[in-house]
Amino acid sequence: MYWIKQILRFAIFTALLLLFVWFAVTLFVWVKSAEPSNTSTLFNIRSNVHWLKTDSALKFSFSASRTMSVRVLSNGIFESQPLDDQPVNYAIEYQLLDAKGAIIYRGTYHHAAKAASNDFQQQVKQIIENREALAVASGQSFYLNREELQQAATITLKLIPENAQLKGVVVRVHAQTSNSIVDPAKAWLKRPTEWRERMTNYHTIGENALTNEEKYNSVMLDWQKLAPQGVPNIDFRADLLYESLPYNVLNHDFSTQLDLDSLFISEQLSASFRVYEHTEYLLSHSENANLTFVWHDLRQLDAPKPLTPEMLSTTQARLSNLPAGLVTISASAPTSIRVFSNGVDPIVPLHSYYYMLNAQTPVYYQVSPKSDIALEWRAPIGSTLSVSLYSNNERIKDYVFTATAEQALFDRLITETTERQTLPTAEKRYLAIPDNVNQIKIEAEDAMVKLQARSPTFNYLDHRCDPVCDPESPIYQGIDAWFSQKADNHYLFHTQKQIASVRLFETPPEVPELLPQYRSKDLDQLLAVSDIALVPIEQAYFDNSVPQMEFEYRQVTKSALFKLGKATSYPSSVIVKQKRKPTLFEVPLNSLQIEELANTQALFINQGLPRTVRKIRLYKVAKTTPLTVAVSENNLQPNALVVKVFSAEPQAEITVATALDSTKVITPSDEYTILAKHFVLHLNPAQTRMFFNPNHAELYEYPSITLPLFQDLTSPKTMTLSFSHDVWISVLEEHEQPDATLNWWQDETP
After folding, report:
1. Can you give the pLDDT at residue 257?
2. CA distances from 606 to 251, 575, 591 (A)
């Protein structure tokens, strides 16, 4: 019995000891496998990433019909933090394959990034490999748009190492898809708080507000992560990349940084922003900021007016009830201001990027034969810019341009530390590329350069509204005429930090030295139907001429009509507007009968001042019949053609296509005429005009179209106009000098 008790006691003790050992080992493994946390920021995220290989490619499949864009994010990985602060270079070779595996496109994307620092104020990135934290370079990405993905079903990625310090490169691939959401605002609020907080930190820095457009994109567009093919247990065996937000901010000293959304104002630099009707603008500025606000009419009908904002506090003010136009901001001392439309959406100026040239670094561009280019530069006065045209590495033509522009009053350079600096005004030269040229070289000792290109057959679409269209509205999205080009040696400029960011502002319209004169074209031989309309007289604020021609009228009362004296230079006539048909007719004053005024609604006479309306002759054009008019008459080429469009029926919009038949100069020019254009004219229902036509008492006037005829044209012949609806039009020529032999309907203003 004794030995039985001893054996039982030993068995129990052994079992407990084994249980304790098992528990200790399990605890040790659990602690060692715990994921490390980063306490330097409250916004840590982790992401599954996949190592790229040099000998084989990772394959990612997607649906071309649902995918709008593909984004490839990559990070260079180090064994330890590099000692120097030099950029790390690597490249990713990507291929697009169709459903059968055939290669559609092959490309290489180069990256240059610095290792992310562990400082508290900067972004932190870690990758956990075999339970060790490896140093990670700042994230880089490139995108493939829908046009490139239409025929593709798979993308492959392979690493091309360019730096011996790299341990490797990890990637994440996302596909952008569209969501069918009726109410984006409600969808945003239904998202979890953590998700909204993460999106806010992705898109904003510091106190920046998330714009409505960013909220809209967040719920309407999803980025779905793609998994590579042929990798087993991918959700469990992929490495984890730990990041802190915001993702796209690196290596900045936030204590001295100027808010990127602020508009910097000083004695040398002013700012501007467009204003629209029924929109309120909130101004946020520093205390005691001595700012001056001036409103400008973009049509120049009203003179510039100083504005006095309504002060809400010592640092906030409000502008409201402004007509559409441009507001400029100036100051006597350096300061900054932020502007929000309707108190929510910040005003975001345009940006442009330039290559910074010096004696050691020229810029090279590949160009398409028979295309047109626009070369823009900013350089000190007197410096030169050399442009060489090449055909398969053989130089065939050289041009030299001299900078003449002074300092810009609105545009400014933004440095890496967000400091704003003055820079010269932009200058441009346009050139038609010969059919044997495929490369351009640009050299300068000190210049900022960018190149834009277009094909002469490209579509150009512009929207016209009364008074102006809001370009932020998706309804008024047009097609630009020019498209910026990327240099062949862009990677070199990127690594040497010779790419400059320039913030652009719109300048107020200038007062012309000479007032343009307008002459209406006689289209009697081309169009069979014409009639007369009464339109308001609109003059530029700097036009001091007094309208008192025979065809210009003012409204008069019935009692004062017969008390007027006789006109000396032309016979007086009266335009009668009445309730019954014809609603509008004209009679000489000396033959006017009292009976004719029985149903009168309004009377107009071409005597006295001020004259408020004028007669114009309009011609009817059918939508199925293009109209071709001669550009110049009597060997006198106008500076521009102006097309005034009216409709008897209120159409929401009318599309106008214009085609100019002309040859162009082959040498560089500082002006460029687009030969083919498309316009969408939007209706303002309040713009109704009195019409003499017996079938239509009123016409709806649409915004007019100005077609410049610049000096790059050698022999403009005809202009062809096509309309989407039946319209009534008047075509005007713009000249610097008035014509001495004019009929009354030909002496007009736009």
Report:
1. 41
2. 72, 9, 15
Q: Mean pLDDT across the stretch 506-516?
A: 91
Is pLDDT of 552 > 80? yes
What per-residue confidence (pLDDT) applies to 247?
A: 33
**b/e per residue 442-472 (b: at least 16 CB within 10 A):** bbbeebbbbbbbbeeebebebbbbbebbeee
- Print the SS3 string covering 504-565: ECCCCCCCCCCCCEEEECCCCCCCCCEEEEEEECCCCCCCCCCCCCCCEEEEECHHHHCCCC
Strands 676-682 and 461-464: parallel
In this prediction the pTM is: 0.68
What CA–CA distance (Å, rounded) separates 365 from 582?
Answer: 65
Res. 275 pLDDT band, cuts 50 70 90: very high
Tell me the C-alpha distance between 599 and 602, whole Å: 9
**Weakest-pLDDT range from 188-202, 485-499, 529-543:** 188-202
Residue whose token pair is 């690594």: 495
Both tokens assigned to 418:
């967000």
Q: How far apart are CA 455 and CA 442, in angstroms?
A: 21
Return the closest-CA partner of residue 730 out of 582, 585, 629, 625.
629
3-state secondary structure 232-251: CCHHHHCEEEEEECCCCCCC
In Å, how far from its chain's centre is CA 491?
25
Helix (H, G, I), strand (E, B) or coil at 16: helix
Half-sphere exposure of 16 (CA within 13 A, CB side): 6
Of 275, 277, 384, 264, residue with least CA distance to 336: 264
What's the pLDDT tens digit per position in 277-304? Answer: 888 999 988 888 889 999 999 999 999 9
- 591-to-263, 562, 574, 594 alpha-carbon distances in Å: 65, 11, 10, 10
Q: Are 229 and 62 in contact (CB under 8 A)?
A: no
439-443 and 384-391 strand pairing: antiparallel
Residue 242: the pLDDT is 41
* Closest to 175 measured CA to CA, from 344, 337, 61, 95: 61
SS3 of residue 65 by DSSP: coil
Compute the distance between CA of residue 650 and CA of residue 653 in angstroms, rounded to an integer. Answer: 9
First to last CA, the chain: 123
In terms of C-beta density within 10 A (0-12 exposed, 13-18 middle, 19 or more buried), how is residue 271 classed? buried
Orientation angle between helical segments 193-203 and 212-220, nearest 10 degrees = 120
Which residue, 53, 37, 35, 82, is CA-closest to 170? 53
647: number of CA atoms within 13 Å, CB side? 22
Q: Give the DSSP H or E segment for 128.
A: strand 125-129
Show Cβ contacts of residue 3 under 8 Å, excluding neighbours closer than 6 positions.
none
Banded model confidence at residue 553, pLDDT cuts 50, 70, 90: very high
11, containing H or E segment: helix 2-32
Average pLDDT, the chain: 82
Spatial CB neighbours of 94, under 8 Å, sequence gap ≥ 6: 72, 106, 107, 108, 109, 144, 155, 156, 157, 158
CA–CA distance from 714 to each of 521, 624, 661, 662, 719 (Å)? 22, 31, 11, 7, 15
Band the pLDDT of 236: cuts 50, 70, 90.
very low
Mean pLDDT within 382-394? 94
What are the tens digits of pLDDT across the range 649-707?
999 999 999 999 999 999 999 999 999 999 999 999 989 999 999 888 899 999 999 99
Distance, C-alpha 447 to centroid of its chain: 24
Q: Which residues contact 736 (CB under 8 A, 6 or more apart)?
A: 514, 516, 517, 639
